[in-house]
Amino acid sequence: MASIHRGLTLVEVMIAILVFAIGALGLAATSGAVVRQLVSSEQRTRAAQIAATRLEKLNASPCSSSSSLESSWGITSSWSTSVGISRVALEQALTRRDSKGVHSDTFLAAAPCE
Known about the structure:
Blueprint: H1 10-60, E1 66-72, E2 75-83, E3 87-98, E4 101-112
Antiparallel strand pairs: 1-2, 2-3, 3-4
């Protein structure tokens, strides 16, 4: 006489719960890393926007030497211009802080003097 067993044993259910828990923990860890990368990417984008804005202002202004330090959106921008023979050079140092520490980016650009 063969008996027919239907359903799952307790061991099978425990293994299924364990596999699900490991997958859920992996997903949670990955989502945290993705959020940190998004924040860092947003700050890099803002730094590039600040640098582009400074270059646009340089192109719109007369050729002269100047420098300044300003801060916005949690990013500190120090910049200086120097006038050459037929162009003005712009050097910008942008500093930002994120979860991994302080990061600095340097942007160099030049614009013709008219």
